Amino acid sequence: MIIRWLKYADVAELTSIAEETGWLLDGYHVKLMMMHSPHLCYGAYDEGVLVGAVMAIEFETSAMIKYFMVKPTHQKQGLGRRLFDTLFGALQNEHPSLYLHANPALESFFGGYGFKSVMEVGRFLNVGKVPPFSFTNAQAKELDGGNFDATIRRIDFETFGENRMNFMMDEMERNSSLKFALPNSFQHSSVINSRGVYLGPWQCRAGFEDEAEKMIQGVLYFRGLKKVIADVPMGNTKAVELFEKYHFLNKGTFIHMCYGDSRNIKFENIYAFSL
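User: That's the sequence. What structure does it adopt?
Assistant: C-alpha cells below.
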C-alpha cells in the first residue's frame, strides 16, 4: 500500500469510491482542487489501484479539507489514519486555521487531532415540490446582476475574513453555472450530475432576508425540474426557515469543525456552503 499525490486520471475511480461511501463528489470540483493545490491531494493505492483519498484546498490563511474517504473493502485497516496523517502533516504548520465538514461518526476521530466542533450543517434537498409563488421576467432580470464578481469579493471577505477568490472564481465558471447578485447577496448553483444541482456558495448579509427569498425563488424557477441540494449551517435560523418554507427537507447532517486559530466566520451570512 502506498500513498502519493492524486492524478487527473484518478477522477473516475474517486467518483466510484464516493458512490460506494455515500460522498457527494463532483469531478469538476475535484479536478479544480488538483489544479490549485496538487500537493494537498493524496490517494492510497493497493497494487496500483486507488482505494482511498483525502484532499484540501488552500485559501489566504486557512485550508479546507475535503473528500476523506476509503473504499469499503479497505476500511478498518488503519488506511484512513495514514491518509489523514499525511495531509495533516503537510497542512499543520502551513496554515493557522483548518476546517472541514465531518461525518458525525468521525467527529471523535477529528477531535483526536485537535479539531473543535463549531456547528451542525444540514444537507437540504428539494425534489421539485415547491409552494406556489410568482416569478416574473423582471425579477429574473433583477437577479442577473452585472457586478457579480465585485459583490462576491466584498461579501465573501466579510463572511470569512480572508481572500478566497483564487479558487472560488474558478469554481463558479462552469458551463452549468447560474449566478445571481443583488446589492447584499450572491448565489451560485451548478449541475453536478444528471440528476442534481448543487446550490452554493450562497451568502446574504444578515438583515436582507428579502434578497435571499428572491434568490431561492430564482433558483427554483430555473432549476426546479432537477433535485436541488444545499449544505446549510443550522445556526443560521433565517436560512433554515427559508429552505423549509420552500419545502426543502433536511436529509443529512455534518459537523463544521475547525483546527488552530479561531476564526470569526459570520455564519449568519451563509445560506449554503460551496461544494
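The CA atoms of residues 40 and 90 lie 7 Å apart.
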